[in-house]
């Protein structure tokens, strides 16, 4: 079992959350604020089996982008 922790921008947060939920992963959402620019972020926590880690990472990458 692994804990996947992802910090994503608020603009992408709901897309990532919905993508993970649709794929059957349980996700906990925490609203957070970045320190430098005070930008809104969303911290997502998901406990998954070892072999599912890459699938979760792929979903996060596909539903969000770098800024």
Describe this protein with a few key phrases.
alpha+beta; three-stranded antiparallel beta sheet
Question: How would you describe this protein?
Answer:
With 67 residues, the protein is of the alpha+beta class. Helix content is 36%, strand content 34%. The chain has two helices and three strands. It has helices at 10-22, 53-63; strands at 2-9, 28-33, 40-48. The chain has a three-stranded antiparallel sheet. A hairpin with a 6-residue loop joins strand 2 (28-33) and strand 3 (40-48). Helix 1 (10-22) packs across helix 2. The radius of gyration is 12 Å and the shape is globular.
The dominant shape is globular
Largest sheet: 3 strands, antiparallel
First-to-last CA distance: 30 Å
- Number of discrete helical segments: 2
Poorly predicted runs of 5 or more residues: none
Strand content: 25-35%
User: What is the chain-wise order of helices and strands?
Assistant: EHEEH
Report the average pLDDT across residues: 91
* Radius of gyration (Å): 12 Å
How would you name the oligomeric state of the polypeptide chains in this document? single chain
Q: Into which percent range does the helicity of residues fall? A: 25-40%
Q: What class, by secondary structure content? A: alpha+beta
What's the count of strands?
A: 3
Strand order in space, largest sheet: 1-3-2
């Amino acid at each position: 079992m692994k804990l996947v922790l992802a910090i994503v921008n608020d603009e992408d947060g709901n897309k990532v959350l919905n993508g993970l939920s649709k794929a059957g992963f349980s996700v906990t959402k925490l609203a957070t604020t970045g320190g430098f620019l005070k930008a809104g972020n969303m911290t997502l926590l998901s406990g998954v089996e070892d072999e599912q880690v890459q699938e979760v990472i792929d979903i996060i990458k596909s539903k969000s982008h770098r800024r």
